[in-house]
Amino acid sequence: MRILVTGATGTLGGAVIPALLKAGHEVRAVSRTKRDDRGNVEWMWGDLISGNGLKEALYGVDAVAHLATSGRKGRGAVDVPGTRTLLILARAAGVPHVLFTSMVGADRAAHGYLRYKLEAERLVAESGLGWTILRCTPFHQWLHHRLGDFSALPALPVDRSVPWQPVHTGEVATRIAALLSAGPAGREIEYGGPQVLNTEELVRTWLRASGLHRPCVPVRYPGRLYAAQRAGDLTTDAAPKGEITWHDYLLPPPTLSDDSDDFASEHTASPTSPATQPEQDPDLRVYGGDEGYERPTRS
């Protein structure tokens, strides 16, 4: 199949493209920055907000992997108007399948950024196209980058009552490739990491992996989104789950024996990787993988 990928330069997009190629698909990627074709990837210029270039990008594709997102600071500009524009043009082009990536909890805790994801889900489901919605828990790579924002603090604020279920983008990408190969599911599918950790467990593992020595100060994160997360609305029991734990992402085992491990290792973010340096790519400011959590504060 020929698959169009939006958000191709984002954290998830960087893992999805090689996963699709590995599965034998042709890949066409959309970027707001003009790029030369590289390897087996056809790059096309396009802008989801204005719609410019999308008609050409959609021509002749068999499916769309719609990964692009506004993130917390984008106020839904891509998630809602951009998704609506994409769906209108995809319907006109006769695209048979659109897969949209959302977040676990969008249907149970539609606060802040998640309300845009839920509205975009509705647009996809009511588009008249074949569709699949994949709701994911936060990515290892995203959490790694966000925790890095606090690395200069003398202490890190942690709310032990807030659970996290991080998942590796490489495993999400493999799941996306499988769902696209299977055709439209016509339903929402949840996918999360292998374990649920509280914030202190998450932070202490990250500190150890980063070689940092910081005390963890107990706080209670404010806001409705954290309240929903505290209640377990942003985790999932759905199977299958990812297999790479938070610990193994940060401190990978010394030997990797099979192709899936090689793939995961290839896409493990480090403090100097592009996945943790979004300011280097203008697309990531709007189309990256910011899941919309607010910076915690003391209450």
Quick structural overview:
By secondary structure, the chain is an alpha/beta fold. 35% of the residues lie in helices and 16% in strands.
What does this structure look like?
The protein has a single domain, classed as NAD(P)-binding Rossmann-like Domain (Rossmann fold, 3-Layer(aba) Sandwich). Helix content is 35%, strand content 16%. The strands form 3 sheets. It has a 7-stranded parallel beta sheet, sandwiched between helices. The C terminus is likely disordered. It has 299 residues and is an alpha/beta fold.
Alpha plus pi helix count: 11
The overall number of domains is 1
Shape: globular
Q: Which homologous superfamily in CATH is the superfamily?
A: NAD(P)-binding Rossmann-like Domain
Identify the CATH class. Alpha Beta
Give me the count of strands.
Answer: 11
Beta-strand residue percentage: 15-25%
Output the radius of gyration: 18 Å
Biggest sheet architecture: 7 strands, parallel
CATH topology: Rossmann fold
Task: Provide the helix percentage.
Answer: 25-40%
Strand order of the largest sheet: 3-2-1-4-5-6-9
CATH architecture: 3-Layer(aba) Sandwich
Average residue-wise pLDDT? 87
Overall structural class, as computed from helix and strand content, comes to alpha/beta
Unreliable runs: 260-299
Euclidean distance between termini CA atoms: 51 Å
SSE topology string: EHEEHEHEHEHEEHEEHEHHHH
